[in-house]
């Protein structure tokens, strides 16, 4: 049974940085594209970034482009999200997901998802 667990969420001030990690088990990590979804209070969960199974293809939603960097280590079945220059509007729950394909609409292609980690950015 696939298991996904996120960590690294915290409360930071605007302009600060956080690094989220996602560990997986029970799935063929290097055969999945992986992504990060975000749910902001009062809004639907949305895909913000994803990475192909080899790590060559990436997609970033416009609001995080240039500030967030997704990466993966297939030897450790781990996904990362480096978040820099954080803004209050980045506050939300961040979910790691194993997806069938990486692209603009990857949030509709989720096979497995974690329980999320909370990120709070204060102004």
Description:
Strands 2, 4, 5, 6, 9, 10 and 11 form a seven-stranded mixed sheet that branches. The mean pLDDT is 97. Helices cover 0% and strands 50% of the residues. It contains no helices and eleven strands. The protein is an all-beta fold and 123 residues long.
Structural class designation:
mainly beta
Q: Which oligomerization state do the chains in this entry correspond to?
A: single chain
- The ordered H/E elements are EEEEEEEEEEE
What's the total helix number? 0
Spatial shape: globular
**CA distance, first residue to last residue:** 40 Å
As residue ranges, the low-confidence spans are none
Major β-sheet profile:
7 strands, mixed
Q: Helix fraction?
A: under 10%
Provide tags for this entry.
123 residues; mainly beta; four-stranded antiparallel sheet
What's a quick, concise take on this entry?
This protein is mostly beta strands and 123 residues long.
Question: What order do the helices and strands come in, and which of them pair?
Answer:
Elements: E1 3-7, E2 11-13, E3 18-25, E4 33-39, E5 46-51, E6 58-60, E7 68-73, E8 78-83, E9 92-99, E10 110-113, E11 117-122
Parallel strand pairs: 2-11
Antiparallel strand pairs: 1-3, 3-8, 4-5, 4-9, 5-6, 7-8, 9-10, 9-11
């Amino acid at each position: 049974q696939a298991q996904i667990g996120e960590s690294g969420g915290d409360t930071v001030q605007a302009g600060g940085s956080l690094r989220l990690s996602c560990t997986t088990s029970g799935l063929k990590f290097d055969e999945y594209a992986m992504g990060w979804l975000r749910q902001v209070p009062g809004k639907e969960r949305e895909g913000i970034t994803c990475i192909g199974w080899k790590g060559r293809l990436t997609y970033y939603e416009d609001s995080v482009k240039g500030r967030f960097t997704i990466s993966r280590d297939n030897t450790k079945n781990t996904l990362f999200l480096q978040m820099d220059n954080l803004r209050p509007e980045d506050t939300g729950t961040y979910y790691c997901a194993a997806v069938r394909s990486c692209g603009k609409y990857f949030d509709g292609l989720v096979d497995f998802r974690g329980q999320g980690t909370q990120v709070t950015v204060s102004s």
